[in-house]
């Protein structure tokens, strides 16, 4: 009996009443169904200016070999001897991301940083903490240092025009 009543009532609804019911159902479904999770990734090519200097005397070092490579951020809980290749510049530096300093101790390398955003952090960030700089010069010890320790919004990078990484080397005796 109730089913017949409902069928007769539904058949007499106007177009407007059907649209209102549909809107109500859509709102209820939207409230019940959880929001979709999303992520976006890409890359940004950005200039990194490496300034290499003699840490004992504060003078620029010309002809220092500089390379930038990708490796995961280091964390105190990581043991470097478990993944010896991760920070090995001989295996990681690509030719296109390397250069030699000029007389003022600088070299500019256009490095390709990975970027990403997601539903938790919708602003696009460049993962500069995954980029490491290797510097080596004749008569000095070599060093591997991160470009930065945290990711940066790509908008901040664009405002800065370039990232500057100062690296001091100690003379080898």
Report on the architecture of this protein.
Strand 5 and strand 6 form a beta hairpin. The protein is rod-shaped. It has 173 residues and is α+β, with helices and mostly antiparallel strands.
What is the third-level CATH name, the topology? Immunoglobulin-like
CATH architecture: Sandwich
Element order: H for helix, E for strand = HHEEEHEEEEEEHE
Number of strands: 10
CATH superfamily: Carboxypeptidase-like, regulatory domain
The average pLDDT is 84
Strand content: 35-45%
Distance between the termini: 101 Å
* CATH top level class name: Mainly Beta
Largest sheet: 6 strands, mixed
Q: What is the radius of gyration computed over CA atoms, rounded to a whole number of angstroms?
A: 28 Å
In DSSP terms (H or I, runs of 4 or more residues), the helix count works out at 4
Helix content: 10-25%
Total domain units: 1
Model regions low in confidence, pLDDT < 50 over at least 5 residues: none
Main structural class = alpha+beta
Shape: rod-shaped
Blueprint (SSEs and pairs):
Blueprint: H1 2-11, H2 15-32, E1 39-54, E2 59-60, E3 65-70, H3 89-92, E4 98-100, E5 106-118, E6 125-126, E7 131-136, E8 143-146, E9 152-153, H4 154-160, E10 163-169
Parallel strand pairs: 1-10
Antiparallel strand pairs: 1-2, 1-5, 3-4, 3-7, 5-6, 6-9, 7-8
In short:
The strands form two sheets. Strands 1, 2, 5, 6, 9 and 10 form a six-stranded mixed β-sheet that branches. A four-stranded antiparallel β-sheet has the order 4-3-7-8, with no helix packed on it.
